């Protein structure tokens, strides 16, 4: 099975760019797989961004997407021009509460920082308490422009459609928080 080059190893978790075989191996639902294949297709077609996967002992257990194109949402383009978005963070339910979401977020922030970005943003449904707490723990701050309707792409064999989701937007300054990795994170940049 083909796999991408390892970008970093944090504790025993390997972070790499996703290849098509990875998507098929993830234990995620079919609609998410279609979405990830579409993300990968966009990157292959020259869109700026990165789709990363986290794996341990040959098992793929999480993914995250870094969107570096202008946002679909007007409010984001107007208020956060040029700021990349973190999307599609997911950790296999069997492996949650073990710090993997945190590692994926921090690895993504490092990637964005390396590419010269000074801020990063994301949208989250405030009912998603686990995710909100994770972002707050990582020093994301809720913006002052209120909640917005964000686009949610659905790619199905029958076609593509978009629904909307009300989300709060959280932003993080990547320059102020360029702190060293957590003491319990053994980071190997490869
Ligand atoms: C949100 C998600 C990615 C978190 O992944 P994870 O690997 O469990 O996250 P971590 O183990 O790094 O947790 C980090 C912190 O997040 C918070 N958190 C995570 N899961 C939580 C839960 N079930 N209840 C309360 N807080 C939680 C805690 O602050 C936690 O720190 P702690 O374990 O030291 O208390 C995971 O729950 C997930 O995949 N959810 C479904 C997809 C999703 O909602 N993605 C986000 C879309 S915006």
Folded structure, characterized:
It is a single chain. With 190 residues, this protein is an alpha+beta fold. The chain has a single domain (8-185), classed as Aminopeptidase, CATH 3.40.630.30. It has five helices and ten strands; from the N terminus they run E-E-H-H-E-E-H-E-H-E-H-E-E-E-E. It has helices at residues 20-25, 30-44, 74-79, 100-114, 129-137, and strands at 8-10, 13-17, 49-56, 59-67, 85-91, 119-124, 141-142, 148-156, 159-173, 187-189. The strands form two sheets. It has a six-stranded antiparallel beta sheet with strand order 5-4-3-2-1-10. Strand 1 (8-10) and strand 2 (13-17) form a beta hairpin. The longest helix is centred in the N-terminal third of the chain and has 15 residues, at 30-44. The protein is globular, with a radius of gyration of 16 Å. The two termini are 21 Å apart. The model has no long low-confidence stretch (mean pLDDT 93). Residues 89-91, 96-102, 124, 128, 130-131, 133-134, 137 line the site of coenzyme A.
